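Example record

One chain of 81 residues, shown exactly as stored in the release files.
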Amino acid sequence: MSYTEKVTFTGTNRYGTGPMKEDDVYTIAEFKECVSSGAFIDYDGHGYPVKDGYADKNIFIKPSGLNKIPADATHIVWYNR
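Predicted structure tokens for this chain:
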């Protein structure tokens, strides 16, 4: 894994309502809940796994690909279309 891109967030599960210039970040459990409830579908966007405040932009996460989330990831940074 190559967690090299700094992610900026002070809270999770805000769906774009956090402070300006912060990333949209979810815990793994929150992200999976958003997917299972239909709040996120592949058409909506994509994310990257996060560990220790850094994203691995080599791993592209779509809602249909939850199995691609690395075991060591703690969060997902989400990019809406």
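Notes: Residues 5-80 form one domain.
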